[in-house]
Amino acid sequence: MVLRGYVPTSEETLQMLAALRLQSLNSDFSTHAAFPRLEELFPPRVLHAHLPAPPHGAAPRCRGARLRLGLLAGGLWGQVLAKQRAERDQRLWGRLREEGASTMAAIVEKWKLLQGMGRPEAMAAYVALVREWPGFGSTLFDVNLRASPLEAAPQRLWLGIGAKAVSLYKPGELEPLDSFGYSRISSFGASDSSTFRLSVEDRDLLFETSQVDEIAQLLNTYLTSMGAQQPPRPQELATSPAPSASVMLPQRLCPKARPWLRQPPVGPFPS
């Protein structure tokens, strides 16, 4: 989770975590020690965040203009654009290597300060740093939250599944937008292969995700370990379609439950 960027903390702390990992793997610093690749120590997305955003040129709106651009792209103008893209990519790659070298140097300097620390101590210090995040112990999933089945603009969030609660985070933020214990969850299930539904008391949350099965299995695991009782199934479908609603997040993160457009399969709590 640290290497995938799912532990929101400062770069200084991420560098210290990397140094502790090196101390655990290789003991004290040595120029002869085998160095892992940087992506095995430090989240690559943090380095990529330092790169300048690519320029966004205005796309031609007129179909005739698009056609002329397409014809030009096959000739000299296309060669010019290809050369510009190659030069830009080379500059970005050079900048990325510089960032990587600077970060590795900072990690090594912190590693040198850990001389004499044994592997158990390094592991304990690593876990102690990670435990400072309130969401420690949760498994995070990238999801897009829809406020209703008809909502057009989902919000990208992290869905955190923990032993005691389910939480929703804005990516990179320490504190959750919302959190609810398992006793508040009435049911959950898959609306389809890429939509996960979670019913919290009288409210429904719809998540677009490619990890529907993984989320359901993890919820089942925690609920089984808690010996939770089977919740009631959702009410029967209403005859009228669900109204569209605009919900401002996070002031009202969980909208009230609305009738479904079609009955989704339900994953009840295990008995």
From TrEMBL:
Residues 226-245 are annotated as: Disordered. Residues 1-233 form the FERM domain. It comes from the Eukaryota. InterPro entries: Actin_motor_Myosin, FERM/acyl-CoA-bd_prot_sf, FERM_2, FERM_central, FERM_domain, IRS_PTB, PH-like_dom_sf. Pfam families: FERM_M (PF00373), IRS (PF02174). This is MYO10 protein. It comes from Psilopogon haemacephalus. The lineage of its organism: Eukaryota, Metazoa, Chordata, Craniata, Vertebrata.
